[in-house]
Amino acid sequence: MSNNHLSFFASVERNFDKAAAHTGLPKGLLEQIKVCNAVYQMRFPVKIGNEYQVIEAYRVQHSHHRLPTKGGIRYATSVNQDEVMALAALMTYKCAIVDVPFGGAKGGVKINPRAYTPFQLEKITRRYTTELIRKNFIGPGIDVPAPDYGTGSREMAWILDTYATFKHGEIDAAGCVTGKPVQQNGIQGRTAATGRGVFYGLREVCSFKDDMKKIGLEAGMEGKTMVVQGLGNVGYHTADISIREGGVKLIGVAEYEGAIYKKDGIDLEALVKHRKETGSILDFPGAKNLKNREDALELECDILVPAALENVITKENAKRIKAKIIGEAANGPIAAEAEDTLLKKGIIIVPDMYINAGGVTVSYFEWLKNLSHMRFGRMEKRFNSNTYENLVGTVERLTGKVIGPKEKSILTKGADEIDLVNSGLEETMVEAYRQIRDVFVRSRKIEDLRTAAFVSALRKISSDYQNLGIFP
Ligand code: NAD
Fold it and tell me: Whole-prediction pTM value?
């Protein structure tokens, strides 16, 4: 790559170097944190129809300072080694930021999943898993994949089944992959987790009155306008939860086939229905079709959520971005060369390694559930519920008043798995943002949240290395 267009991994390295300068950590330690520890590039044949296709695929383990390593698997034609290395590196920093005790990893299979039938995808997924098993690149204590762009719970179920077949009798086999269907050792809330985490993160960012004042906004999410690029797993749930729980107005959506704008707000469910029926988000009643799908990024709005792929905001279009806040739901949506232009405009960039960490956080909960062989809430739900009922009964007796049945059922509810997962996720996102903001506010030299997030991550990773007795 030429100097004026950095590769994705080089972009991550550049951001790392910018932050490293603020840490005072020794050079050797920084180098050890920065590099990818293991890169596995593979090619394997899969019979598709009457022909064999040679599939190119990767698994990168960026950091072994904590095990297992963790990160999604991407199915896309754009997959290449540089991209998987960059995504694996981001996973290391992401896990540190949200205090998830894993090293970073990522996988990629260079295919267009839309070009294959489910049967063919299953063959490819099972063969990919077999390659990972063969090289000891998967296992509950080794490396634990999850969904990413182009994959979902279906693929994760195939991975587990393949792994469990080879590792018959391994008691913790279910923890070899996360993002599985709930009925197949998954966890409630994982599918929406990344989008829900984006919402909690943005809500926290917007809660600081002084920060909002600087960009001409009121504190709070209510009434803020949002534009989302990519209505897949992350984009859809971010929009859905932001509308329902945050009172946000969704005014623009970009998808593969184009982009739409509707000033008074898009009804998301109606849009999804429209897309199902017509095969496109375009021509949605009451909305305006934009000329190019990328135009959505340039709409005037409070919050822009790129939730498709990397490098969509470049040096070229950065100057035309009008959003006040950009929540990097996708990994690496802002090219490193575009960052300065956006920061100079005063835009708050909420970095990927923080804002989309909800997925890995709930994956961590799923992994813990698999290792404990028990769903969350099983032990305490009824006990808590009985305790609250006794309390309510005592209050009724002492006051001589009766609490209505609806109110009573809310007051006496014991927590289900989904309640615990969402509250653990909320706590994680709120706490991590406070840590990052604290680094940002205390330092007079750090100019952006991404650098602050990196600094926060580097401090934690370096102390992990010290605890290991390496780099004392
Ligand atoms: P997905 O495949 O479910 O959805 C991506 C969507 O983007 C698809 O609907 C696709 O049609 C659309 N899209 C592709 N190119 C587009 C373009 N140029 N303009 C508009 N839309 C376009 O993928 P996902 O899991 O939602 O992942 C999206 C991003 O979020 C990726 O960068 C991924 O690494 C990141 N991410 C995902 C997770 C997760 O839990 N799935 C977690 C963290 C980060």
Answer: 0.95
